Amino acid sequence: MSCNLHPLLVLQLSEWLEANNELEFVERDYAARLDLIAKVRGLQKAENYIEKVPASFRGEVIYRTLLANCVVANNAKKAEEVFNKMKDLEFPVSAFSCNQLLLLYKRLDKKKIADVLLLMEKQNIKPSLFTYRILIDTKGMSNDMHGMDQILETMKAEGVQPDAYTLSILAKHYATAGLKEKAEAVLKEIEGENLRTNRGACRALLPLNAMLGKADEVGRVWKVCESNPRIEECMAAIEAWGKLKRIEEAEAVFDKMSKKWQKLSSKHYSALLKVYANNKMLTKGKDLLKRMADSGCRIGPLTWDAIVKLYVEVGEVEKADSVLNKASQHNQLKPMFNSFMIVMEQYVKRGDIHNSEKIFYRMRQAGYIARIKQFQALVQAYINAKAPAYGMRERIKADNIFPNKALAAQLTQIDPFKKTAVSDLLD
Prior knowledge:
It is a single chain. The protein is mainly α. The protein folds into 4 domains: 126 residues, Alpha Horseshoe (Serine Threonine Protein Phosphatase 5, Tetratricopeptide repeat); 53 residues, no CATH class; 63 residues; 84 residues. Helix content is 70%, strand content 0%. The chain is built from 25 helices and no strands. The mean pLDDT is 89.
């Protein structure tokens, strides 16, 4: 198992092949190139590249690829522009494009989901399995179990059967909501009659059983995989044992994995690193990082995220910040959104406005478009510091963000010009 080729190298190879006429490019090749440019060099460069694609190959696949990358980057403004451009170019509105918008709004603006569903209805676009999966997850995230069940019923009535992945989303939300019996019933459905013949289910069952606190079940499922495990089953088992705080079992799975696959990638190391972070085991985490460096493995965003979390969990916020800062200066890869938020939230708790603003700025530098979540955290820093935030409403407006109820309530707390009983008397 080797570390995957770096996207930059793949991009350079594809550029060389095109420049030297080694390949006869078709639309899918141009779309693959566009995808790489978006991932390595950003959305603006990808958009510029479209102009260079011969007009005859500038079809729906090209724009769909750009749309998907806008969604990955959580750039709602750009995603909506691309979606509208596709309509202007008279490409048919597809389930794929609508699903991309649903995915985006699930994260950024749940109120807009209804608009997409209305558009699908008008255009006579049948929801796909992926559509239902997004809707189920959205209801689950909002803790609306009744709504989640209704979507499941509609889906089945439309003849769309949930796959194991959709069922695992259901089980996860039932478990989080404390509906243990419902979660267990879904787990039975995922497992089927015979786990040995339905081996693909193990990957989902391991962490879900851990969520329900069922160590015996995790052990039983792992026994099916143990003699000849697949790499994704090892990852799931490490996560499961980590959730149950059974560190030795997680380490044993990792050792088995590293013996079977000589060259592990940063993603595989990060699974155990995350376990150490969640259990505040700094020394073990550092030892694993050293082992990782010695193996010559390329460290990327997943590893940075685990290291940042590791330092935050043991209370070394400044050290986490320093790791994040070094990672941000990495040329090709940027740290995950979550890594910035973990550090920012620590500064917010302290009411440290200066450092909260600094992280907010660094996220922007890294190419993350401002979202409500970031502003909520930033405003909370001012609240915790008992300081007024001049111009905050204007900043939010400039980012095309419409405050939700929670943010609006926060903003009234930090309004430097709000009236008080005393100021009324003095007027």
